[in-house]
User: Fold this.
Amino acid sequence: MLGIHLIGRQGEGGFEFASKMGVKVFQTFLHSPKQLRIVRVNVERWNSEAEKFPDIIPVVHASYLINPFTDTMAKYQDGFNILLNTMRTASTLDGVDTVVVHPGALVNLRGSKTSRYEQAATLFDSVLNDPDVYGVRIALETMPGAGSQVAGFAQMHRLYNLIENNDKVGICWDTAHMVGYGYDLRSESGFDMAVSDFLDYFSIDDLLVLHLNDTPVRVGSKKDVHTGVQVNSPPSPMLLRALQQFKGIPQIVELSDYDTSYRTINTLKNYI
Assistant:
């Protein structure tokens, strides 16, 4: 189910935009991803659009500022408030059943990691236990592992296991991030290893969303760079393998400009 990430708008016109693009999925923020200010979504308008385009699947991406592992209580509370607002709002939006969240980073760690993991799990459980949060799952996104980021399936599973409501939690693969982390998704054997490692910790049903991004970075560089299909070029083997391996879930091209997004999506359509 190929889709596009909306740039610079909080879901406005997403259903019609995806329909015009000829895709079945769009991803959007409900607020500015790098600001604490919460944007109020026009729920009535959203649900009216959803009714007109019942075959379009919306996915919500939460703020980048959420860090359940932070060592600062004020930042922890800010992250909780943003995620709670996002999940409450998503619960009222027709068609939304998944919110993608970056797991966070173990910043300024001086003691045991255990208490930080427990603290992060508490934040997620507090949000998922809220009576105004319903019918929406959290998809923890794979990260490249820069600095103290929680990354890799072992670390993500450690968090997952501590969340009491983990039946409402799954995983979002970001192919660019996974290359940065250390998986050589460009080769068949490297892709097979990534799938095998994932299945050591999770089931295939736990994979809720795919961010279908190419990247120029070196395997294991810990860098986060997204690219798409180049002009007059075929898709990379990594994009094709991911596209074909995970047909049953939302596959979102997540780029910073629409020209490259259009080119990537229109090229990938030829291989579906």
Q: What stands out?
A: The two ends are 9 Å apart (CA to CA).
